[in-house]
Amino acid sequence: MRFTYNQLKKYLKTNLNANEIANALTMLGLEIEDVEDICSPLSDFIVGEVIECKDHPDSDHLHLLKVNTGTEILDVVCGAPNVKKGLKGILARNGNIIPVNGMKLKKTMVRGYESNGMMCSAYELNIGEDHDGIIELPNEITAGTDAISALEKVYNLDVIYEGNVLPNRPDYLGVIGIARDLSAGGFGEFIPPQIQEIKSDYDSPIIVENKATEDAKEFNTRYIKGVENKDSPRWLVEYLKSSNMNSISALVDITNFCLHNINRPLHVFDADKIKGKLVIDYAKGGENFTALDGNTYILNEGDIVIKDDNGIQSLAGVMGGLNSSCSKKTKNVLLESAYFNPVKIRKTAKRLKIESDSKFRFERGIDQCCTIWGMEYATNLILDICGGSPSRICKTGKCQYQPHTIEFPVSYFEKRIGFDIPKQEMVKILTNLGCEVSEDKDKLFITPPSYREDIEGKDDITEELVRVYGFDKLPSVSVRPDSFNLVVDTKIIHKTILPRILAYKGLTEVYTWSFMSSKKELDTTTPSIKITNPIASDLDVMRKSIIPNLLDGIKSNLSRCITTSNLFEIGPTFYGAKPMEQNISVAGVRQGEIQLKNWQGAPRTADVYDVKDDVISILKVFGVSLNSIKLETTNLPNWLNPYKSASIIFANKTIGYFGEIHPLTLKKFGIKNTNVVAFEVNLDFMPDLKSKGTSKKRLIISDLLPVYRDFSVIIDENVLGGTILSEVKNANKEYISDAIIFDIYKGDNLPKGTKSVAIRITIEQKDKTLTDDEINVIFKSAIDKVVKLGGKLRDK
Amino acid sequence: MIDKKEIIENIKKATTTSEIENITISVLGKNGQLTLALREVGKLSEEERKTKGAELNKIKTEIVSLIEEKKSILELEEINKKLESDKIDITLNKEKPFKGYIHPLTQVKEELLQIFATQGFRLVSANDPDIEDDFHNFTALNVPEYHPARSMQDTFFVEGGNLLRTQTSSVQIREMERSGVPVKVITMGRVYRSDWDATHTPMFHQIEGLYVDKNVTMAHLKGCLVDFLKSFFEVDEVPIQFRPSYFPFTEPSAEMDIRCTIQNGELKIGKDGNRWLEILGCGMVHPNVLKSVGINPDEYQGFAFGMGIERLTMLKYGIPDMRKCFETDTRWLSHYGFDASDVPNMITGLSRK
Asked: DSSP labels for A344-382?
């Protein structure tokens, strides 16, 4: 809502200046987001008097002036056609900033003559449109007077506010409502508008039939004959301009003025363009309607329309029709003042995507009781500006507005807010807000005014009281508990621990959109979860996996010449379009050199074992060991390299994947000349962490050292390392506590299709020292297991 | 005969530990001069044995100590020489491991958790879906269909009619449906609005707080938020103002501003600041919201608040462009991100360390 200080002052007697009013409004609940002050930039300007005016010898339009500033005489070169000796105008001196373009004025040479100032036009000072000539002030103003007090006498120097009207306060959509609230807040005295009674001696010749009284609750018209629709008077043009509305013609401007000023949407039909009766009815559906904005809309069944024998002339409350609109030729006008069902208006306008000031007000709810009053107010203006003779008002329907009374226990305020307002203060505030208040012991009975339909119950009263009395009176009471509460249960511990574990491992955390491009989905076996109104065509589905977004991340990093990306994200992934059909997942990608070229060793590129280790670290956070998961290398999704990837099975469920991204998938993402390894784990499939308590089993340390034995075998290259190790460990579960592979070799000196694997086993000595024989037996049992797998023991 | 002089001379001349070793063997070894000489002593008469033996033993003692002395000198020399030959360039560094960073949003979420934990709020652990139905996102929050408040936030819809939650307030409803009252929880999560420019992204994060019990007043709301701001910005005094506002799910509703100055991206909070900066929205839970989840508003009442986590993060850590939060630019992430070890806690402080 854009309005001005002077507009407000018409309805408010106040001593507050424009800035104080802005602050008051913000604290009352109409947040002033912007104040356009045209005075302040003029504070350094003064009145200058032209005491000499000669033609510039080298120019046919420039003049050489001597300008009296009250304290000195300045040389000024001026090109304005209306400059003359004795003229008093606004002088910009060197150093002044010209409001219209922000330029700082400085001494210049104009065709050989020095100029030390500028006589300004209204346009240059941002106070008017006139830029053909400079401002001419009345003669009684003396040179040296400050510009603001001089201009005030001639120009409408105003302060424009931009206010953010919240949906619950439609009364703020009229200047009158804002003034009323300021007065209730104690910032001035409300001056109610005065309207003259309209005398009329005939009935409107246009018959109105309201077939939609259910939704067109009240529909009143008045015929005014013999009007002269012309350009609006200057004050009205200025008014509309400062409220960001264009002047069209006096009749239209008057309706816009009423809408903005007294919050009453109206409509004017050119009465001569209406054929037959005017009928308010529901659209049947499919009708075309050409609105004032020039667009043609197709209506739905149930839209409220106003039609005559020629067809639809207006879409109720939303926008008038082009066919019956007023023009400068309009001689007889039909003025409409109605009340429509807000929900109906909103539905129609939303579907047709029409924004209009009228619709904006109707859908939020306007004062139901001001239809007649608003019409009288507008009629007065029409008669004043356009003349004419008004008919009696033709009324159809009647708003069923019933004032309601709220029973408000005085103590309710303190119970909810935490401090007390004296009862008499409450009564005063509510009365100032336009409520009727009666008292009964510790209760108030409050009847809100018709323009505040948002005040429905006790809590609305509480809000009104605290807002007007002032939030600054609100005390501050701590909510710290006296008992201990566990804030983060172990179930969601990953929210704090997991990111840090991964960051320690060299992965950097990112946040990417929950949506992505349907063209980049990895899993095409399940349907996409489509967004019906995506913000961009490449963000049209909810992500089923985080990996595509991370691949996009690598792609953009590569285009930023970042050649290494180690990224992870923890966030939602979706498997359906219903609430709760989502999981929390962790995903990571590694691309590029994980170890850079360095003087101690060779560079190394991230490989699958890096992401496998990431997965192991993640599982560990949830107490899941490598032994309790299974890795499957068959039936992998096609976006993974089938020879370098695995799916992770835990408790018979696939909980995620790790591996190398398939080269064709990388191509789809535009990632060239590099490999990417990735992992993704569904954290919802992880077991709930249980608190492990505080005390651990007592530690017993054996003095006996473990024994290590190494051996190597030549074995079929398809026998997996994991199989060898688990066989070795199974050879003697009691004594072999660990087994690792410390070398793998493939080469020409080995039979084709084989590899050499070197294994070290750890033999634990428990309560006694083992003899060499005992150790050899254990060692041999381990070797035998590998031989059984087809391995051939290599010579030492 | 033992040539003591020569032996001593040889010891003195030795320049390596192996020379000393050779001398030791030739003198004191199995067949060494001195060993043999001592063996010879046994063949002598008792008297001669006594004097000769004593003499030889004295020589032996002297030689042994000379050898030891010389040996330790040479050993030191040799070790030093070896160490010198292994001299390193101390200015070189081990290759830096790739470092990972914690995203500033995660850091701030953890700070918020720390603060609200001390105030006794529990973090909602599940039950907070991003895809919501109309009931939980709007209707139960006192926003009926065709209410103008719906257009305050441009909503994304998914096929099938559900929507992406426009605010975490939907979790209020789910949490009260699940665990009833009293309830004192916070939730943090992604929210979605169809808006994309310098200060808006189609997805951002909110923290939502809800405290409903029998006697929770708006004064508690203020106390809670003032305590929060002091802890979060680590200042003793936070000048604040509540400004009337409108949210369908609270009444009275307010927005909270802090008095501050922002200079070169740095936030300075204090009563001599030059502006009021909007920081969050809050209010008393609307009775209709309580009713929608079957709670009697005459018996229970409470407050709710919500704020944008990106905004808090940007303010606290002087981050200029919100959109960068959702890019994967590692230059930005390593600059504004946090070390894994920088775990925020209330004892060592909640700022960057």
From this structure: HHHHHHHHHT---HHHHHHHH---GGGHHHHHHHHHHHH
